[in-house]
Amino acid sequence: MGQAAEDPRAAAAEAQKPAEPSMTATTKAEEDLPPLSDHDFRIYNQLAERMDSFHNYFRQSWTILWSACTSSPSPSSSSTPVDTDELLYTGLSLASHLSAHHSIEETYFFPRLAARMPEFDPRSGPMVEQHAAIHAGLDDFEAYLRRCQRGDEEFDLAKLRDRMEGWGAVLWAHLDEEVRALGAENMRRYWTKDEIMRLRM
Q1: CA-to-CA distance for 166 and 173, rounded, in angstroms?
Q2: Is the pTM above the cut of 0.85?
Q3: How many separate domains does the chain show?
Q4: What Pfam families does this protein map onto (predicted)?
C-alpha cells in the first residue's frame, strides 16, 4: 500500500481546533444569556442528540472501511482476513444512507432552520457547502464499489482508500459541526423552547 495514509479524522480534528479567543459580538451575546437548567438544556439539545445518533452510524461505517484500508493486506493475498462482500455492503450502505440523509435534510429540515440560522442557508451556508464537498468524493466512492459489486473491476483496498481520502476530512468535520450547530447553546440563540419542541427532524 505504500506510504501510510493520513487519517481523515485527525485532519478534521486539527481543522476544528479553536482559534485564539476574541471578544466577538457572538461571544458577547452568548455571555449575556443566563445559564440553562438541566431540563431546558435537554429541550434545546434534543435535535443535536438525534442528529448525533444518525452521525454515529456514518462514523462507525467509515471507521470499519478506513481500518480495513489502512491495516489489512490486499484482498488478493492468501493470508488476508478481509471479507470483500462485507466491505462492499458496508461501503454501499454508507453511500446510500448518507445520500438519503443529506437529501432529507436539504429538502425538509434545513429550509426551516435557514429561516433563522445562516449556517443552514441553502445558497451559502456551510452545512450545505460541506454536503456538496462530501458528495464530490462520495459519488466516485459509490461508483467504484458498484463496479466491484458487478464484477466490472477487482476490489482493491488501496483503490478504496484513494476514494475515501479526498472527502474524509470534510465528512468528519461536518459530522461534528452540524451537531454543534444544533446544540443547546447555539439553538437557544434562535429559537424559543416551544419552537424547539415543534421542530422535527
Answers
A1: 13
A2: no
A3: 1
A4: Hemerythrin
